[in-house]
Amino acid sequence: MRVRRRVWWRNGSKRLGSPKGSPMTWRGIGSDPATDAAAVDVIAAFEVAHEAGLPTVRCYLAGVEAWRRAHPDQRLEYAARQAVAVIHAAKIKLRVEDA
After folding, report:
1. pTM of the prediction?
2. Strand partners, 5
3. Is 30 exposed, middle or buried (0-12, 13-18, 19+ CB in 10 A)?
4. 48 with 63: CB under 8 angstroms?
5. In Å, how far from its chain's centre is CA 12?
6. Residues whose CB falls within 8 Å of the CB of residue 67, separated by 6 or more in sequence, listed in order
7. Which ranges in the chain belong to alpha helices (H)?
8. Using CA atoms, how far apart are residues 27 and 81, in angstroms rounded to an integer?
9. 3-state helix, strand, coil in the chain (%, to 5)
10. Which of 41, 56, 52 is closest to 90 using CA atoms?
11. Is 33 in contact with 39 (CB distance < 8 Å)?
């Protein structure tokens, strides 16, 4: 017989969880980094670095630094992923050509 335990959260809601595992449910990332307020600064920093003739790596680093100024509490790896996602969303257009 499987036993389910009742879990009460601080906000008063209930959730059923497995007796062996965590009652926590995982969800995908809900926010789009391109809609973040820092996205404009990231793209601007990338473009300024690109127009200055800096190598591509330095252009991306400028975008990451702009993201980190807006979000100093985020880890470097996460901030870099978010900034690169913003740059790719703004700059990369994929085309499918007829074969």
Report:
1. 0.64
2. 17
3. exposed
4. no
5. 30
6. 38, 41, 42, 74, 79, 80, 82, 83, 86
7. 39-51, 56-70, 76-91
8. 18
9. 45, 10, 45
10. 41
11. yes
Contact 74, 68 (CB under 8 A): yes
pLDDT at res. 35: 85
Which residue in the block uniquely carries the two structure tokens 């100093």?
72
Residues in a beta bridge with 14:
8
What's the N-to-C CA distance of the chain in angstroms? 58
Give the tens place of pLDDT for each residue, 39-60.
999 999 999 999 999 999 999 9
- Domain ranges, ordered by start, for the chain: 33-91
Mean pLDDT of 79-95: 90
φ, ψ of residue 29 in degrees (nearest 5): -65, 125
| The token pair that represents 91 in the structure block | 């700059």
- Cβ neighbours for 90, distance < 8 A, ≥ 6 positions apart: 34, 39, 43
